[in-house]
Amino acid sequence: MRKVINGIFVRGDKLLPIETRFRTYNINKTVFGAGIVMKKSSMKGIFLLAVILAAVLSLFYRKTEEKGLLQTGKELEEELPICRVQTKEQNIALTFEVTYETDQVSEILELLAQHDGGASFFVTGKWAAEHTELAERILEQGCDVGFLGYECHDMSLLKETEAREELERGKEQLIQLQQTAAAERKLLFRPPYGEVSDQLLRAARIAGFTVIGWNTDSMDWKDYGTDAIVKLVLQKNQLRSGSILRFSADAKDTPEALPRIFAGLKQSGYQAVSVSELLE
Hints:
This protein is of the alpha/beta class and 280 residues long. 43% of the residues lie in helices and 17% in strands. It is built from 10 helices and 13 strands. The chain has helices at 40-66, 73-79, 103-114, 125-130, 132-140, 160-181, 198-207, 226-234, 254-267, 275-279, and strands at residues 2-5, 8-11, 14-17, 31-33, 36-38, 91-98, 120-123, 144-147, 188-189, 210-211, 216-217, 244-248, 271-273. The strands form 4 sheets. Strands 6, 7, 8, 11, 12 and 13 form a 6-stranded parallel beta sheet that branches. A hairpin with a 2-residue loop joins strand 1 (2-5) and strand 2. The longest helix is centred in the N-terminal third of the chain and has 27 residues, at 40-66.
């Protein structure tokens, strides 16, 4: 059995001064732990190992940064969906998701014109291809046309290369629509169902899109009825400057609810605008 008693190293029945078992150094160069003195050579080994580890980590960081696997805080902030905008103006953005409906889109545009309101329409690429004139009309009326995926499916499940291909396809559609309507707008993208992934957000940023979410969901797509939509949208704890409201242009009660929502917004001193206007 080995132990240290009052500075004496005990080994079996023999008592040896501790200095005969370990070399000692100046106190500033000695590391003590549980009565054991670490050799100076061991310290050099640990220091050398730390230097090598630091060099390896530095190389790994540079390589991953070159490949785009590491991001700065600013880049991550730019990629995250915008759900509300800090603004001093009493503006609120209305957003409508469009997947197949056409008649209600026209009705919503008429209601916006009647109430001097703006809005953003997030459409699928397939819908835009089949209803080009209506998409151009949205832009000509001063509203946004944003991208909702070529078809409304969960794009967060896509590989990054697949997401980039779909986003580039949508980007080309939006630019063509803007050129035809002579209406330049921001490139806006809303992930279908609000589902996102790191790969999808990165692909959207690389493609030049601003990703838009929402902080108030009208839940009109659940078909709870007009009263429920109006109450949910206009509740005081949700409604504030810079809010982004989500509607579905395909929901049956949305057109009927909008006049009451416009009246409530006006009464509270808010103006309905597009996302592009809100971001200015």
